[in-house]
## 1
Amino acid sequence: MASVLRSSILRHIRVPISGALTLNGSDLIAVRSMSSHGDDHLDKQEVISRVLDVVKSFPKVDPSKVTPDVHFQKDLGLDSLDNVEIVMAIEEEFKLEIPDKEADKINSCHLAIEYIHNHPMAG
Amino acid sequence: MASTLKYVRVPPNSANMEEARKRVFEFFKTACRSIPTIMDIYILDDVAKPSQLRSTVASEIRKNAHVTDPKVIDMLLIKATEELSNIVEHAKQRHHIIGQYVVGRQGLTQDLGIKDQGNSNFLNSFYSGNYF
C-alpha cells in the first residue's frame, strides 16, 4: 500500500525532471557544446599523415616506397594477411571498428585515407 | 567490443579454400581486437607493443600458410580459438605469454635460425621433421 502510494507520488515528482532533461537535450543538440564527437571530420592532411605513419611503421614495409597512392599488395609486395594487419593497425590508430565488408575493400593507402576521412567517428 | 570472443557455436565447416580464408581473417581480426584486453590483463605495457603482438599472431598464422586442405585449416582454427580463449580468460600467466609470444620471436627462434644457416638442406629437414 505504502509502496503504491510512494510510486505514484514519485511518478508525479519525476515528470518535471525528464522534461528538464529533454529541454537540456535539445539545447545541447543546438549548441553542441558538450558533444565529444565533433561534427567536423578529421582534417584530410592529418588523416593522410597518420595513415602514412601507420603504414611506414609496419615492419615489412620499406618506408621510402610509401606514398598516399601506394597499393599494399601490388606496390609494397605484401600479402593478404599483411593487408588485414595494416587495416587492424589503422583501426587501432583511429580508434574505430571497421566492419568486414568495408575492411575487405581497403587495399591501398588511397582507399584507407578515403574511408577514414569519411568516417564520422574517427578519433 | 563487438567482435571479441564469441564462443564458436557452429563448428567451422569450410566448403572450400575461400571460406577457410575468410575464417582465418576473422580469427585474426578477433585476436587483434583482443590485444588491448590481453595487454591489460597480463600487464605487458613495458614488454611488448600491440604492433609486435599483431605481427606475432600474423607469423603464427603464416607458419601454416602452406596448408591446402580446408578441413585441416578448420582444425587449426579451432585450436587457435581455444588458445585465444585461454589467454583472454586469464587461464595463462604472464610468463607464458611472454615466453611464447614475446621473447620467443627474438630470443629463441632467431638463435635457431643463425645456427642452422651453415648446414645442409638434408640436416635442416632432418631436424625439423620425420618426413622429407
## 2
Amino acid sequence: MIDNGFPLTTEPSILKEMIAPPNLVSKMLSVVTGNASNVSDTLPSGAGSCVPWRPTDPKYSSNEVYVDLVEEMDAIVNRDGELVKCEIYGEVQMNSQLTGFPDLTLSFANPSILEDMRFHPCVRYRPWESHQVLSFVPPDGEFKLMSYRVKKLKNTPVYVKPQITSDSGTCRISVLVGIRSDPGKTIESITLSFQLPHCVSSADLSSNHGTVTILSNKTCTWTIGRIPKDKTPCLSGTLALEPGLERLHVFPTFKLGFKIMGIALSGLRIEKLDLQTIPPRLYKGFRAQTRAGEFDVRL
Amino acid sequence: MAPPAASQRYPSPSQPSGKSEVSDLKTQLRQLAGSRAPGVDDSKRDLYKKVISYMTIGIDVSSVFGEMVMCSATSDIVLKKMCYLYVGNYAKGNPDLSLLTINFLQRDCKDEDPMIRGLALRSLCSLRVPNLVEYLVGPLGSGLKDNNSYVRTIAVTGVLKLYHISPSTCIDADFPATLKSLMLHDSDAQVVANCLSALQEIWSLEASHSEEACREKESLLSKPVIYYFLNRIKEFNEWAQCLILELAVKYVPSDSNDIFDIMNLLEDRLQHANGAVVLATVKVFLQLTLSMTDVHQQVYERIKSPLLTLVSSGSPEQSYAILSHLHLLVVRAPFIFAADYKHFYCQYNEPSYVKKLKLEMLTAVANESNTYEIVTELCEYAANVDIAIARESIRAVGKIALQQYDVNAIVDRLLQFLEMEKDYVTAETLVLVKDLLRKYPQWSHDCISVVGGISSKNIQEPKAKAALIWMLGEYAQDMSDAPYVLENLIENWEEEHSAEVRLHLLTAAMKCFFKRAPETQKALGTALAAGIADFHQDVHDRALFYYRVLQYDVHVAERVVSPPKQAVSVFADTQSSEIKDRVFDEFNSLSVIYQKPSYMFTDKEHRGPFEFSDEVGNISITPEASSDIVPAQQYEANDKDLLLGIDEKDENKGVSNNNGSAYTAPSLESSSNITSQMQELAISGPATSATTPQSFGFDDLFGLGLSTAPAPTPSPPLLKLNARAALDPGAFQQKWRQLPISLTQECSVNPQGIAALTVPQSLIKHMQSHSIHCIASGGQSPNFKFFFFAQKESEPSNYLTECIINTSSAKAQIKVKADEQSTCQAFTTVFETALSKFVSLTFDFVSLCY
C-alpha cells in the first residue's frame, strides 16, 4: 500500500483489511449498492500498534490454528537416470484464527536438515538461534511463516525412463513412468509434458494408461493421474521427421508434475505447537504436501 | 450559460467533447455550493467524481476551480479527499485562486480527526505556490508537534516539500533542527524514517553552500546516530530498513569492534523475507569488511546461501537481478560458489535471459575440481531446442577451455560438437577451435584431423568460415587437401559476400603458398587478381599490398605475412578493473544489472553530487566545471580514436594476425618539442618574477612581490594549455591513483587576498580562465581542497593537481601528478602564476574597498 508515494505497509493481512479481496458477497453488494470499490473507510487497527502485522483485538468464538508444510521438489535427471541436481524448497504456511494476543512456539523434530531459512517479520530471531524454535505473535488469518531449502536429497519418488531411437526419417519413442521409492502416501496427478522438436512433422503417440494430448504448438502432455498397481504406465509411438532429415538432433526435455498429500518429502516434521496462554476451545491442525516444482528429465 | 433544463440531467459520458460538460459541471457545482439540504453531499460526490475522472483522462477542468473551492466546506471525508486531490493538481496553474483554498485547508489542519488534519496538511504542502509559503509554516510547526503519528509523518514530508518550494523559509523556521530531534526521539518508526529521508535530502542539497549543513550531514553518519537506527531497525518497514542500511553503508567504522558490532546487529536481516533488505544488508557487510581480507572471505561464505535462495525462489526477473549480483561477486571471488555450481544449472522452463546469465556464472565458477561436471552440463545445452542458448553454451565451453582447466577433455568435447552435424553448432565450434589453437598450439594435431573433415560448403556464417579458412592457411602443411579447398573457395570469390571472409582467404592463400608453393601458385594468382578487382577497399588494399610485397621479395613477404607465432597467453578482457570496482561500489543498484557504473547510463543533470570514494568524504564533484566543454572535446577525441583504431587495425592486418607485435613507436617529434620548450622556459624564466622554474626563494619572492608592488604584467604562460580540456571524473580518479607524485610544493599566499576566498567557486572560475579546470572541490573555511586538471594544447598529456589552501595561515600546498614528468615543473610554474593572479586581483579589490 503506497500512501501518497510513500510506502505504508506490505503486510498482506493488513492489506486485506484495507482492500477486501473480491468475493461473492462483495460482488453482490457492489451490484446492489453500485459501489464498486472494495477499499474500506477506516485505517486498520493494527497499523499503529507495536505488532503492525496483527489487528489489535480480533475475537473468535472457536480458536483455530492450522500449520501447512508445502514443499516443492526441483530436480534435473540426466539421460542415464542419474540425479544431476535435486533440492526442495519449502514453506511453512499458517492460518491462525486466535482471539487476543497469542504467543506461539513452533518446534521441529529435525530442524538441522534445514538450510537458509527466511522468516516473516513476526518471528523472533534469538530463540531460533539458540534452540531452533520459532517463537512469534502471528498475524491474523493466512500468512507465510517461513521458507527454507533442503539440499542433498538422494532420491525422487517417481522415475521417468524415456527412450528415443531414430532411423531413416522416423523416430520411435517410448517413455516409462513408475514409482522409484514409495513415499508411503499415494502420488497423485502425475503429468508429463514435453515440447516436440521443430523438425517433427507429425506424431502418433498412445499410452496404456492415462490420456495423451498434443496441442498445435507441439506441446505434448500425458496425464497419468495415479500409477496403477498392476502395470507400469507407458507412452509409445512414432514421430515422423520433416523430409530430408535422417535422425533427430534435438531432444526434448520432459517436465514431470506430481503431488503427494500428507507428507513432506524433505523429511521435515513438526514436533509441537505451543500457546503461551491456552484459549478455550482451541483446535490445532497440521498438514503436509509435496509437489513437483521444476522437475526436468533430459533425454 | 447552459439552460437550466440541461443542468438537471447529468451529461452523458459518451459525449467526449468535454467543453460543454465542464461548463455544465460548473453550473451544477455553483447551485450546490450554498445548499445545506439533506442529501446534497451525495450529489456533490457524484459531481466531484466526474471532475476527478475528467482530470485523470486529461481534460482541463481548471475552470471550475472556484466552484470546487466553494463546495469544499463539508464534513464528508470522501468529498474532502477528492477536493484535496483536485486542488493539489491545479493550484500551481492558478496561484491567485489557490489563495482561496488556504483558508479552509488551514481550518482543516486544526480538525479533531487526525485523518483530516493529515490530509489537509498534505494538500496544503502540495499546493506548490511560492507566494503562499508563509501560510505553510504555522500548520507545519503544529503538525510536527501533533500527538498523532500519522499527522507527524505527513508533516515531516511536508517540511521536505516546503524546502523544495522555498529553501530559505524552511531553514529560517529551523525545521531541520526540529526534524532532527523528532528523528532521534519519536516513538513511531515511520515518523523517524521520514525524518531521515527528509533530512538526508535537505542537508545534501544545502551542503554545497552551507558549512553547517555539511556538518549536519556528516553527523548523520556518526556512530551514535547509526547505532540508534540499527538498534531500532526491526521496528521499521522494509523500505525504511533499506534506507537505514543504505545509510549504514556510508558509515566509516572506527575500529574492528565497531565492524563486528554492526554485523552482529544486522545478522538476522539476512534472513528477512524481503529480497531488497537482504541485498542491502549484503552490501553493508561487503563494504564494512573491505579492509579486512579474512573477514571479507567469511562474509562471502555467510551471504552465499541467502543469495542462492533468492535466485531459486521467486520470479525470473528477481532471479535475473540476483544473478547479476552474484556474477559481480563471483568475478571478485571465484572460489565462493565453486561448490555450489549446481545452482546455476539451467532449468528447461527458465526464460533465456536467466539461462544466459546462468551460463556466464557456470563459466565464472569453473575451476579444477568442477570443470568436468560443468562442461558435461554445458554439453547438454548444446543439444537444446533453443538455438541461442545452444550457441551460448558452446561459447561457454570454449571460455572454460581458455581458462586452462582440464583442456584435454574439453577439446574432445568440442570435437564431438563438430560431429553433431548441426550447422550452428559447427559454426560456433569452429570459431572456438580457432581461438583454442591460438592459445594451445600443441593441440593442433587432434583438431586439424577433425577440422579437415568438415566440408566448407556446410558452413554459411562468415565468422565460422573465416575461422576455417584461417586454420586452412595456418596448418596447410598438416592438411593434405588445404590448397585444393582454398582453390575451390577462391573460385567462388564472387559469391562470397562477407569482406571478412575474403580478407582471410587472401591471407590464407599467401600462407599456404609459402608452405606448399607449387600447389597453391595458381590459386594465389587468382585470389590476388580477384582481390585487386574487389570493390571493398580493405580487400583491394590488402591484395595490392601482398602483390607488391611478393614482387619485392618473396622471403620478405613470408616474414611479413607468416612469421613464427607465439601462443596467446591471455585474451583481452573487455571491462577494465576500474569499472568493475566502480560497479561493486554501486552494489544493489541498476549499475550491477547494466554491468556499467551509473555515470555511464544516467544523464548529467540526474547524476547529483557524488563523491570520490578514495578521498575524504566532503569533496564533491562539481560537474559544471567541465560539463559545458566536454561534448565537443569528446567528439574530437572519439574521432581521433576512431582514426587511430582503423590505422592500427590495418597495420595489424597488414602483418597478418601477428599477435606478438605490439605497436609502440616512440614519437621523436614530441620529445624534441618538449626539450625546445624547456629551453625556452629556461631562457625566459628570469624575465618574469613569477615563472621562475627554480623554487628556491620562490616563497619570499611571491609573498614580497605581492604585498609591496602591484602584480607583474601577466605574460602568456610558456606551456600552452588546452583551454577546452576535458577529463571525466572516473578517468581523473584512475590517473590520480596510478601516477606518482611528481612535485610537492608549499607556498604562502597573501593573507589579505586569500581572505576573499570564502566559497570555492570564485577560485574555480579564475583558474578556468587560465585553462586549468577544476574537477572537484570541497572543504570549508579555513581549509579548502581543490582538484584541478589541465591538458597540454598540442597533445593529450594531462596534469593533475591537488591544491590545499589554508586561508588562516595563508599557505597553499600543491601536489602535481603528470603524464609527462619532464614538463611538470613548467606546469607548476604556470599553475602558481595563475594562483598568484587570483590572489592579486582580489587583493586589489580589497584595497579599493578600503
